[in-house]
Amino acid sequence: MLAWYWWLLSAWMAYCAYENTRLFVRPPALDTRRKRWPKVSILIPARNEEHRIGPCLEGMLRMDHPSYEVLVLDDRSTDRTANVVRSFAKNNGRLRLLKGKELPAGWIGKPWACAQLAKAAKGEWLFFTDADTWHLPETLKRTLQMAEGKGADALSLFTKQETQTWMEALVIPVMANTLLAFLPARWALDPRSPFKRFAGMSGQFIFIKKKVYEAFGGHGTVKDEIVEDLNFGRRVVGAGHRLVLGDGSDFSFCRMYTTPREVWEGFSKNFFPAVGFNLFFFLIAQMVLLLDGVAPFVVAVMGPGPLFHPAVALCLTVLSIRWLQAVKYRFHKGSVLLHPLGCLLFSVIGFNSAWWSWSGKGHWKGRSLKRGP
Fold this sequence. Notes:
Elements: H1 2-23, E1 40-46, H2 53-60, E2 68-74, H3 81-89, E3 95-99, H4 109-120, E4 125-128, E5 133-135, H5 139-149, E6 154-158, E7 160-161, H6 166-180, H7 185-188, E8 206-209, H8 210-216, H9 228-238, E9 243-247, E10 252-254, H10 260-274, H11 279-292, H12 295-302, H13 308-328, H14 339-359, E11 363-364, E12 367-368
Parallel strand pairs: 1-2, 1-4, 2-3, 6-9, 7-10
Antiparallel strand pairs: 4-8, 5-10, 6-8, 11-12
Helix pairs in contact: 1-13, 2-3, 6-14, 10-14, 11-14, 12-13
């Protein structure tokens, strides 16, 4: 039975890789003849980001776009985040600092910060991004060109994931592979599809028409979601709006975490909430990591046996897909051969995430990760 499963999985993953490679395209080169560009509001929620937000603001204030604003919401930071933003705002009228209001009952921090930013925004398009990202000057024009060219109501692009420590390089590509290698994303983008519950967006790059955002309720629809970006995409598609996904890794960049401890805590925050706090889906995710990402490599190394050939086939498929992703999305290539170790580590983080949820011990940036009031 396991042999047949691995053979079929090899074929399925190859199909998913083919479909998603075709779907996640980069925005086309800029049309320099275009004259009119709608106004964009760049919206950055920031909580305790004094060491990260500087490069983000430097890039945002250099955008090659005639009509945009940059709004940063200081989400009640306990560090010098607000002072850093003020130092940039002194010399640039496009930038405004907003003071975050107290977190209401029933809300999680980031959705509440994004909702406040959207309310203050004046642009036709809203561009939500994180303080740990940075973007080249062409970002707004190329993104707008792609969104309008594809008739998108909302668009989300992958950013290039910068990884410098060993734990970043091991875990972050495994997370991306889990999202990309097991379901053709276009199946999730159809509002009539039973797979629409898997539609998601990257919180590092959410580009949406303001009138669409307001029509379906915006971040108020995910107010108690820890992994709000994945659920936000589902709300967009579920409301009947056209969501487009793509690859922005040639002009948008992110370093999610900078130390092994941050990787551990950051993914512990996200893993169990990403499966909806559902034990069944959690066990499926663990099976994918261990039975599909670790076990075939162990069997292949052990040598000839009844499972040897399907294990080798799956290993080769997985490593080929990982290499394709490393080239296309500019992930760390050195981690490809260490894929089973990355899966094992990600699985351990997953169990810690479940423990955080069940025990109520999880915290992030000084706030409890408990849902609801």
